Every structure is written in C-alpha cells, then in structure tokens.
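Propose amino acids for all 171 sites.
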C-alpha cells in the first residue's frame, strides 16, 4: 500500500472492514456514523501506509488504533458542545408529583456526587461528563495515569455505595 498498490488496499479492506465496522458501531452507537468513520479511516490508512511500523505492532492493531482514535475524536466533538456541570444543571420540575422517581434519581445522583472527595468527583466528572480519556485527565491534572485510574475506581465504588444507601434508607 505504501507503494500505491490498490490491490493491497482492497485486501486490507476485505480483511478488516467487518471488524472495524463493528468496533465503530459499538463506539459511536450509529451505523451511519460508523460507516463514515470507516471510510475516513481507510482513506487515512491509504495516505499514511508508509507510517506503519511492524516493530510497533500488527497491521490490525495499527488500523484499530486509528479507528478508535478517530471515533473518540468524533465523540468529543459531539459531546464537547454538550458538556454541562452538574451543579448548574436545571432539571425541569415534575408536572405531577414533586416526588417522582426521575426527580429523586437526579437529585440523589447530585447529592451523592457532592459527598465524594473533590479529587474523585473531578475525575469522575471529567471522564463521564466531559468525555476526557484517563490519559487526558492525567495530563491535565499532572498526575500519574495509575493515580487517575484509582481515583475513578474509588469514586465509582463510593458512588454505588452512597446510592445504595439512599435506596435502602428510602431517601
């Protein structure tokens, strides 16, 4: 492919397009978006075939990493415009009873998040509400990746415990 062999491109497409499409659909949750992504990734692979280094991994890994990277870029560009701080979310008031399950769930999550230590809450918000990868969070906070992973794991565990307590306590 690096020498412009279209047959090599066709072979690569035949070999990996099915798996890449499945990964794209799983990441983007849209068949149309996954098709667009697949097209873009194969164009990129064609243009940058000379960049492939067998010492760094298999062709499959190289192509999958390009697809994953482009999918995350797309997700960030879509979710970036929808980033909202939990403290400023203005949920509509229930129209019937003030104690509806949906209202309680939102309020319980807000309350539970406020009970987390700040370092854990920030990592959780950055990962889930801002769409940042753990590597990006680590770089932004100047902390080791392992520390960020641990904070997120502890935050999720504690959030589960707090919400379970709300449920069990009837709150």
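Proposal:
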């Amino acid at each position: 492919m690096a020498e412009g062999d279209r047959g090599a491109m066709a072979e690569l497409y035949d070999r990996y397009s099915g798996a890449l499409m499945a990964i794209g659909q799983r990441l983007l949750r849209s068949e149309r978006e996954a098709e667009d992504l697949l097209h873009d990734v194969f164009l990129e692979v064609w243009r940058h075939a000379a960049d492939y280094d067998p010492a760094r991994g298999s062709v499959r890994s190289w192509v999958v990493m390009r697809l994953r990277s482009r999918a995350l870029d797309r997700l960030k560009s879509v979710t970036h415009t929808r980033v909202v701080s939990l403290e400023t979310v203005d949920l509509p008031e229930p129209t019937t009873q003030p104690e509806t399950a949906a209202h309680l769930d939102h309020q319980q999550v807000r309350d539970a998040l406020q009970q987390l230590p700040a370092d854990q809450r920030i990592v959780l918000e950055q990962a889930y509400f801002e769409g940042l990868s753990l590597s990006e969070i680590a770089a932004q906070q100047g902390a080791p990746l392992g520390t960020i992973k641990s904070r997120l794991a502890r935050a999720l565990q504690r959030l589960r415990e707090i919400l379970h307590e709300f449920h069990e306590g009837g709150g």
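Residues 6-81 form a domain with the Rna Polymerase Sigma Factor; Chain: A fold (CATH 1.10.1740.10). The CA atoms of residues 2 and 48 lie 8 Å apart.
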